[in-house]
Amino acid sequence: MTSPMPLPGAMPTPPYPAPPGAWLRSPAALGRATAVLLGVVIAADLFACYADLLEIDVTGDIADGATGSDVVDRADRADTLYGVAGISQGVALLATMVVYLCWLWRVRVNAEVFDASRHRMKRGWTIGGWFCPIVNLWFPRRIVADCWDASAPWNERTGHTPLINAWWTVWLVNLFVGRFADTSSRKAETAEELRQAAKTMLVSDALDIAAAVLAVVVVVRLTRRQERKVLAGPPPVPALG
Fold first, then answer.
1. Are the C-beta atoms of residues 163 and 217 closer than 8 Å to each other?
2. Residue ranges of the DUF4328 domain (predicted)?
3. Integer Cα distance of 85 and 82 in angstroms
4. What does the angle CA 215 – CA 114 – CA 4 come to, to the nearest 5 degrees?
5. Selection from 215, 210, 207, 168 nearest residue 52 by Cα
């Protein structure tokens, strides 16, 4: 587990009472681990894009009437890489999801200490919001946005960055394109159908790369935002008179 966040002096006093069991702890280690694992996701997606291109190439040749042992060998190799890429993506995504949710829980608790009034969702939705159908289309974004707002420097006007909207939009688009690509791939029977499914999967993998890159930026910036707020010390006291 992470160690308590180093403070330059006394613990900053939040402008509103923090909920029971909430205290500041550094999200830095979890943030770095999450960024690294998102990098692994990007690498797995790049490998998947390569497998997609091989699949598109060989299925296109088969659809055009190409035959022979060379085509069969290429098809076998493409199918093998296609399967390996899918497994690699699944493993990378699972590992990243676990660490990412640990990081998100940490920044959520910190954000409650900074300003408990900023949060529109209960803390349990930090995890549950990703897995509950329907609400997982907007609850996670709202939680991240609330954490961003609560972590703003003292006396600075809050308002989450368009970065969060960009990340969540790309993620949602990728979610729907990926499901369509997976369904198309499972239902494909002819070479042409396989080629079209592989093209759709290529788009999905490219979108996943974009979403992962934006997620890295969100993680890094939100982590630094919280660390700077802690190091800034208690909120300034307004002058009297």
1. yes
2. 73-224
3. 5
4. 80
5. 207
pLDDT in tens, 173-197: 999 999 999 999 888 888 889 999 9
55-65 burial string, b = 16+ CB within 10 Å, else e?
bbebbbbbeee
Token pair of 22, please? 């909430």
Asked if residue 85 lies in contact with residue 51, where contact means CB atoms within 8 angstroms, the answer is yes
Q: Which among 188, 205, 200, 189 is positioned nearest to 85, based on CA atoms? A: 205
Q: In angstroms, rounded to a whole number, what is the distance separating the alpha carbons of residues 101 and 237?
A: 35
Q: Can you tell me the distance from the alpha carbon of 211 to that of 179, in angstroms, rounded to the nearest whole number?
A: 16
Q: Kindly write down the DSSP assignment for every residue of 62-121, as one continuous string.
A: HHTT--SHHHHHHHHHHHHHHHHHHHHHHHHHHHHHHHHHHHHHHHHHHHHHH-GGG-SS
How far apart CA 188 and CA 153 sit, in angstroms, is 53
pLDDT-based confidence at 106, cuts 50/70/90?
very high
Against a cut of 0.90, is the pTM above it? no
CA distance 206 to 201: 9
Residue 193's SS3 state is: helix
Share of the chain above pLDDT 90, in %: 59
* Amino acid found at 224: R
